[in-house]
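Q: Start with the shorter request: fold the first protein.
A: Done. Sequence, then structure:
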Amino acid sequence: MGRELKRKQAKREGKNVKEVKMKNQKQELKPKTFATIIIVLLLFFAILYLITGLFITKDIKWFDKKESEKTEQTSISNKILASDSLRQTEEEYYVYFYDTTNEDSSVSNIVSSINEKVYRVDLHDDFNSNFIGEESGIVENISDLKVSDPTVIKVSREKIVEFYGGSENIKTNLG
């Protein structure tokens, strides 16, 4: 129906012509406004996600590909908690206790050259803080184990068989 016909019909029915126009315009704009509201909300959440990912959680890294490659290369393999030192799958292995903030490179090289499997325990980690203290030597129960920085133990069949505490002791016995 054309605009003139709608106006004439509205006059015959005694309705206001402006009200009829407003109703028609509202009906025509409803799907458009709904779509624009959805698009605006999606854009808002996308921008919020990007801001959160870039600045707060730092999960999104677009800018420094070289930096992310460096962190992947320097990540430590075979890192475990001190409480899991006697519960590994191998029958015989070494566990290297060290502090990442104060690591001795010569001791790390000696430990890396060991032919058997070596697990690493970061003493700087708060979960391992209760294992730091005066060296206990070979113990039966893992909860009794106390180490200083650096320490290497040899584990065989879930028991500590060798204990090397201090960098000089490690260098003379394993190097």
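Q: Next, the second protein, separately.
A: Sequence, then structure:
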Amino acid sequence: MDQKGFSISRLIKSFGYALKGIATAYSKGQVNIKIHTCVAILTIALSILLSISTFEWVCIILCIGLVIAAEMTNSAIETLVDLVSPEWHEKAGSVKDIAAGAVLVLAATSVVVGAIIFLPKIIALLS
């Protein structure tokens, strides 16, 4: 256990650092996180319009949170790789590519989840 013990002020500082990290992810010119956020907002609007079930909401919110968290992790990895390897290096490039690939896998999975939830409802509306 931490020898410093529990402290509300330390907990508040931790949340402050986390919020600073979120703000940094959005302010550092990270276009992809802004794209994911726009898609998330559109997905939430569609979810409201189509009156999805509670379970479907859980699936949608999990997908949104996971994709945005993965994008933030990818950005953190890219920043760290650039710090420790400012010159191009094949392994550094591979690390960045793998992290970006993980985001793509999660985003594609989220699209499939969205299609499973939304397509039947859209088809029913159009019928």
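Q: Describe the second briefly.
A: The domain at 31-126 is CATH 1.10.287.3610 (Helix Hairpins). The chain has a mean pLDDT of 94.
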